[in-house]
Write a structure and sequence with these properties.
- Chain B: Pfam families: SUFBD_core (PF01458), SufBD_N (PF19295).
- Chain B: InterPro entries: Fe-S_cluster_assembly_SufBD, SUF_FeS_clus_asmbl_SufBD_core, SUF_FeS_clus_asmbl_SufBD_sf, SUF_FeS_clus_asmbl_SufD, SufBD_N.
- Chain B: Belongs to the iron-sulfur cluster assembly SufBD family.
- The complex is a heterodimer of chains A (261) and B (436).
- By secondary structure, chain A is an alpha/beta fold.
- Chain A has 9 helices and 10 strands.
- In chain A, a hairpin with a 2-residue loop joins strand 9 and strand 10.
- With 436 residues, chain B is α/β, with parallel strands linked by helices.
- Chain B contains 10 helices and 19 strands.
- In chain B, helix 9 packs antiparallel against helix 10.
- Chain B is globular, with a radius of gyration of 21 Å.
- The N and C termini of chain B lie far apart (43 Å).
- Classes of the chains: A alpha/beta (261), B alpha/beta (436).
- Chains A and B meet through helix 2 and helix 3 of A and helix 8 and helix 9 of B.
- Adenosine-5'-triphosphate (ATP) binds next to helix 1 of chain A.
Chain lengths: 261, 436
């Protein structure tokens, strides 16, 4: 069976009444790796938050479907159980809840009542993935993200990705703040996930991540829209030349989401 | 102006009760003096809660008769959950309403001179020792009406004494069972750790009746002498309708340490004070508390650490959850007396409100009369953070479960401090039921 398909059509999103996304179209299929690049403040995280259902972001028009199901009608947890995953740019810290308890709840929520994972099996899986990601095993008993360094938080997002095995994952700046070794480890995690059943949208500012995870498609986001599409060579050109040539080509003056008049 | 309160029990009653219990003369005298003083004394001051209309003084029965438990197998299920029935290596006291109902203390501790017995036996058999500490060092009978009333009417409690240089590794445990709707608790716990000793003491107050319109006036006096260390854990879960005055106070000698881990799960209106007086230089006081308020109840918690000694360290951590139309108030007081140089007074109080009508308040109060000190405070009153919920839900966890995780996480830093595994587990379960 082939993987899932996430289709975003003419998506408009507002936050506190201000329009941020102004018509985004994107289709991600199982087996594909997409990368979105774009200057700061152009709506990349807004897109990922809207897909996952962050309470602050209001979808004003357009549609998001996963294998034909209307994602916009689902609660956040339903979206996750339907197969979506978002590695967040700024993961929350949750005092008093251990990383292990949290992950076990998340896994059991997918498996449903009466079908909970055995504690032994869970610990084995978690240990295995943590070792793969070269994480200190003590991190399992630490409170979720609390006091984690920037790099540790990112690794922990990838740990969750690997434990939860979603159909479509969005990785929002998973490479920010990583040293070169951590970058390799995180990429190793994502590459391990690669299969026909797994689609991925990577939001990044840097070509260096894409050296490790080669994307099939590269998109450029400006002013709340995807303004250019291409292959891996597009990312390389952006790295070398920046965004000015695109702005010139498209006649964009201010690439950020404009402020209200 | 104090309005006159007519007590249901007079001097003749107190004298008769005292002689029936075979109390030494000093104990009887203390009762009668306190009864006399009751009239003139004011009610305790409770910051931010009006208690004029609360009933702390009118009740029907001073003592009720209860059966002792012949073995641990006879314990009610709620109590079984608290004690390790399997092992015979207990240091355990169980009191049923006012009746000493079960007691074991290991031979090893007996041989070391450890005393662990109910308060009346202590008064009869260890009178001189008890007299030295009973309402002399931590709490005085004449502080206000409720301490006086307590001193006059004490009807239960326990005495723990750890001699010099004795370090106890196994916890000493007391369970005060309230299973009679008519039982009023004037319970007195007095724990003394002499020089260089160490002790872990854990107690539970537990009502097995759903509702009761009785009173609890509970005092703990904890005396920790030079270089001694006491970990004091307590979980209170008194019935709905019971009005409780709870005062746990410790005094710390030089280089000593007191660590409190307190869970207040009472279902009725509660005034709760926890004070640590850091008398000796280099002493440490750590006061942690979790509370849950629900229904219509009002609860007022004052946690106070007073620094007298130099280089003393005080730390307060209060976490409370309030739901329904309950009110929870935290007053955190760090007081540094003149001369307590290099003292460090820290405190954090947080209240999480789970419903629109719930009320929470956290008041940090710093009273500092010395220049060369450190002090810090944090206080917050808020609701469950929607972004945290979003994060948890984004992993597939349903909203109710996500809320449960956040709430338990919020209370965990204190719950995990309780020194007995079973008591910790029981507290988690009580919290689970209450916040649902
Ligand atoms: N919670 C919020 N409240 C107010 N404005 C917001 C909020 N989130 C995003 N915005 C605004 O929306 C715009 C797009 O932000 P977004 O985070 O989507 O950008 P981005 O492309 O991810 O940027 P970066 O590369 O810096 O992460 C910005 O102008 C930002 O200030
Ligand atoms: Mg962003």
């Amino acid at each position: 069976m082939a993987g899932s398909t996430l289709i975003i059509k003419d998506l408009h999103v507002a936050i506190e009444g201000k329009e941020i996304l102004k018509g985004v179209n994107l289709e991600i299929k199982g087996g594909e790796i997409h990368a979105i690049m774009g200057p700061n403040g152009t709506g990349k995280s807004t897109l990922s938050s809207a897909i996952m259902g962050h309470p602050k972001y209001e979808v004003t028009s357009g549609s998001i479907t996963l294998d034909g199901q209307n994602v916009l009608e689902m609660e956040v947890d339903e979206r996750a159980r339907a197969g979506l995953f978002l590695a967040m740019q700024y993961p929350s810290e949750i005092n008093g809840v251990t990383n292990a308890d949290f992950l076990r709840s998340a896994i059991n929520a997918r498996r449903g009542e009466g079908n909970e994972i055995s504690l032994m099996k869970f610990i084995r899986q978690m240990d295995k993935q943590m070792e793969f990601l070269e994480m200190d095993l003590d991190m399992a008993q630490r409170y979720l993200n609390e006091g984690f360094s920037g790099g540790e938080k990112k690794r922990n997002e990838i740990l969750q990705l690997m434990m939860l095995q979603p159909k479509i994952a969005i990785l929002d700046e998973i490479d920010s703040g990583l040293d070169i070794d951590a970058l390799k480890v995180v990429s190793k995690g994502v590459n391990q996930m690669r299969s026909d059943d797994f689609g991925c949208l990577i939001i990044t500012h840097y070509q260096r991540l894409l050296n490790y995870i080669t994307p099939d498609y590269v998109h450029v986001m400006m002013d709340g829209r995807i303004v250019k599409n291409g292959g891996p060579e597009l990312a390389q050109r952006l790295e070398a030349e920046g965004y000015d040539w695109i702005k010139k080509e498209l006649g964009i003056e201010d690439e950020t989401v404009e402020q209200e008049a | 102006m104090t309005t006159e309160i007519k007590l249901p029990f007079d001097k003749a009653f107190v004298s008769t009760f005292s002689s029936a219990m075979n109390e030494p003369a000093w104990f009887a005298a203390l009762r009668l003096k306190a009864l006399e003083q009751f009239e003139q004394l004011p009610m305790p001051k409770t910051e931010k809660t009006k208690i004029e209309k609360w009933n702390f003084t009118q009740f029907r029965q001073h003592t009720v008769k209860s059966q002792a438990y012949s073995s641990l197998a006879d314990l009610p299920e709620e109590v079984k959950a608290l004690v390790d029935i399997e092992t015979s290596k207990h240091n355990l006291y169980i009191q049923r309403n006012q009746t000493p109902a079960f007691l074991t203390l290991s031979d090893e501790l007996k041989n070391k001179g450890v005393i662990f017995t109910d308060i009346f036996t202590a008064a009869r058999e260890h009178g001189d020792l008890l007299k030295k500490y009973y309402m002399t060092q931590a709490i005085n009978a004449d502080e206000h009406k409720l301490t006086a009333l307590h001193a006059a009417l004490v009807n239960g409690g326990v005495f723990v004494y750890v001699p010099k240089n004795v370090e106890i590794t196994e916890p000493i445990q007391a369970v005060f069972v309230h299973d009679d709707k008519e039982a009023n608790l004037f319970n007195h716990v007095i724990v003394v750790a002499d020089d260089n000793s160490s002790l872990t003491y854990v107690e539970n107050y537990i009502s097995t009746v759903e509702e009761s319109d009785t009173l609890a006036n509970i005092l703990t006096e904890l005396v920790v002498n030079t270089n001694a260390r006491v970990q004091y854990g307590a979980v209170d879960h008194l019935a709905k309708g019971m009005t409780a005055y709870v005062n746990r106070r410790g005094v710390a000698g030089r280089d000593s340490e007191i660590d409190w881990a307190l869970g207040s799960m009472n279902e009725g209106n509660t005034i709760f004070e926890n004070t640590t007086n850091l008398l000796g230089d280099g002493s440490i006081g750590d006061a942690k508390m979790v509370v849950v308020g629900r229904g219509e109840q009002t609860q007022n918690f004052t946690t106070k650490v007073v620094h007298f000694g130099k280089h003393t360290q005080g730390n307060i951590l209060n976490h409370g959850v309030v739901k329904d139309s309950a009110t929870t108030i935290f007053n955190g007081i760090g007081k540094i007396e003149h001369g307590a140089s290099k003292a460090d007074a820290e405190q954090t109080s947080r209240v999480l409100m789970l419903s629109e009508k719930a009320r929470g308040d956290a008041n940090p109060i710093l009273l500092i009369d010395e220049d060369d000190v450190m002090a810090g405070h944090a206080a917050s009153v808020g609701r469950v953070d929607p972004v945290q919920l979003y994060y948890l839900m984004s992993r597939g966890i349903p909203q109710t479960e996500a809320e449960r995780l956040v709430i338990h996480g919020f209370l965990a830093p204190v719950v995990t401090q309780l020194p007995i595994e079973k008591v910790k587990k029981q507290l988690s379960e009580v919290i689970e039921r209450k916040v649902k």
